Amino acid sequence: MAQIAFTPNLSRHLDCPSLAVDGSTVAEVLSALCAAHTQLRSYLLDDQDRLRKHVTVFVDNVQIKDRIGLSDTVQESSSVYIAQALSGG
Length: 89
Prior knowledge:
Blueprint (H helix, E strand, L loop, with lengths): L1 E5 L1 H6 L5 E3 L4 H11 L4 H4 L10 E5 L2 E2 L15 E6 L5
Parallel strand pairs: 1-5
Antiparallel strand pairs: 1-2, 3-4, 3-5
């Protein structure tokens, strides 16, 4: 199972504990994550299940390339990190 962790900024606003989920692609991992924590779906994904512009996903410390189809491969031993962009002054 892939291990999912979140940026501390996201954790301050939403209940998103680190957890392990099944999936062989980013899409499958995010689907399993959102099934377990439904409040995350609208924050992470738009109405077409694409990553929102302010969200970035890393698999094994490499930023994913496919932000639309989320087809990047995830191994059982992978570490998935979900980060949000920060703005302001």
